[in-house]
Design a protein that fits this description.
With 478 residues, the protein is mainly beta. It is built from one helix and 29 strands. It is 1% helix and 30% strand. Strand 14 and strand 15 form a beta hairpin.
Length: 478
């Protein structure tokens, strides 16, 4: 992950509520219960979070990779209620090997229709970069056992490193044909020869041969990066659609679903950027698209395209740190938009947006990082009032600002304590080459984020060796 440097920090931390935590705007719509969490592997109603750690060792096997599953509870996510998932875990169809990078990419869906969330997780560097994709099954006891989804178009062993395929480097789940069942969309993340093909797996079996995936050829090339693909119902037809990053000018595209699945001929270009999020910000029944472009202008920006029956708006709204009401200032290298997540923080029925700015300087501490939360409303994202920002110096946020921590490298809004409000979970990658990353849990009461119940989770607390460059907190499930 690239590092950014900037000159100074404008006032970033807003007023804190008594007892710690940052104040949220009052809700303006009737409170609506959050939907069942997408990631609930044991079916207890608490949202779970997966922290992929592809640089982690498994025993003496270096860089084999692990996925740390933090299960939700009445206390939110805690180090004690966890599962370390590796390719050596019981029931897994493979074994941990040097450099596999298991946990690099993951997504969640109920792929066998049993009511428990399942996890699709990639070891993108397995077999010299060919990649390996595994689906791990949810159950009342959590994640257990798995199957491999083979690459339908593998490269030959004669191909060199420049044509690494990285099968499973792009993953998302959704119901793209409207049949009420989750499908898994998979693409590769090649380096020299970008892949333009999607593979949709339906009715994934727990054992035996898997149904052949449906192949969708796109009219554009995908980015060379991992991830860069999300899903949601943008046009309101009760079928999920895709938003994908393209390689040409980093341009994103919208690809709608249909009764027969994805329709590439109806693809529409969107704004440029490397991060994507889809959710209903204005509560009109159409999911909206947010694109994060961390390298735009000086300090990065987000582009918001509101959904409609015709798909996302062709004229997105641009927001950056010089937008009135947004805390801070648009300064070189902030990385505003490096990570995005949508969730209803105050329970008002509108999706709010968390935006990571991993290059922010805090005081004199360079690259310490920050996160903004922008409230949703019937009029869309609100920046004129109610926007809040967090960093390690904010009241109610545990820990201290540290150089190159990159707080905000990942963000997630999800209801980990089942109180009807989405909590803020922040990953820090620690790009200094000395420290090993962290995950910070900041619960929402509906009126404030952080304070009582907040916690800093470090690698050693979840059973990982805290080695330099581990990157615990740099990869969340999507």
């Amino acid at each position: 992950m690239p590092s950014y440097v900037r000159n100074a920090l404008a006032a970033l931390t807003v007023a804190a509520a008594a007892g710690g935590g940052l104040l949220l705007p009052a809700g303006t719509a009737a409170a609506a219960p959050l939907p069942a969490p997408k990631a609930d592997f044991n079916g207890d109603g608490f949202a779970d979070v997966v922290v992929g750690t592809p640089s982690a060792s498994v025993g003496d096997v270096k860089y084999a990779g692990q996925a740390v599953v933090l299960y939700g509870s009445a206390s939110g996510i805690t180090p004690s209620k966890r599962q370390l998932l590796t390719q050596d875990s019981p029931g897994m169809p493979d074994s941990a090997e040097y450099g596999d990078a298991f946990g690099s990419v993951s997504t969640v869906g109920d792929f066998d229709g049993d009511g428990f969330s399942d996890l699709a997780v990639t070891a993108d560097l397995e077999d010299d970069g060919a990649g390996r994709l595994t689906v791990v099954w949810g159950s009342k006891n959590g994640l257990t056992g798995g199957v491999t989804l083979d690459d339908p178009a593998p490269l030959s062993e004669a191909d060199d490193e420049r044509t690494w395929r990285m099968w499973g480097g792009k993953l998302t789940a959704g119901d793209f044909d409207g049949d009420g069942k989750d499908e898994l969309v998979v693409a590769a993340a090649t380096n020299a020869n970008a892949n333009s093909t999607l593979h949709t797996f339906r009715n994934i079996a727990r054992s035996g041969p898997q149904p052949a995936p449906v192949k969708t050829q796109l009219p554009f090339r995908l980015t060379h990066y991992l991830e860069g693909i999300v899903s949601g119902d943008v046009n309101g037809d009760r079928r999920d659609d895709l938003v994908l990053g393209g390689v040409v000018s980093s341009l994103n595209h919208y690809v709608p679903g249909s009764p027969t699945g994805l329709v590439p001929d109806a693809a529409k270009p969107l704004g440029a950027g490397f991060a994507q999020a889809v959710g209903d910000i204005n509560g009109d029944g159409f999911a909206d698209v947010v694109i994060g472009d961390r390298g735009a202008a000086k300090g990065g920006r987000i582009l918001v395209s509101y959904g409609s029956a015709a798909g996302p708006s062709a004229k997105p709204v641009a927001i950056h740190q010089d937008t009135p009401g947004v805390p801070g200032a648009d300064e070189q290298g902030d990385g505003f938009g490096v990570s995005l997540s949508l969730g209803d923080v105050n329970g008002d029925g509108f999706q709010d947006l968390a935006v990571g700015s991993y290059g922010e300087t805090v005081g004199t501490v360079a690259l310490a990082g920050a996160v903004h939360v922008l409230p949703g409303s019937a009029a869309g994202l609100v920046t004129s009032k109610g926007a809040v920002a967090f960093n390690r110096s904010s009241a109610g946020v545990p820990g201290d600002a540290r150089r190159a921590e990159q707080f905000g490298a990942e963000v997630k809004l999800t209801d980990a304590n089942k109180d009807g409000k989405a909590d803020l979970i922040v990953g820090a990658s620690d790009a200094d080459g000395v420290n090993s990353g962290s995950v910070t849990y900041l619960p929402s009461t509906g009126t404030k984020i952080g304070g009582t119940g907040s916690r800093l989770i470090l690698p050693a607390q979840v059973g990982l060796a805290p080695t330099a460059g581990l990157g615990f907190g740099a990869h969340f499930d999507h």
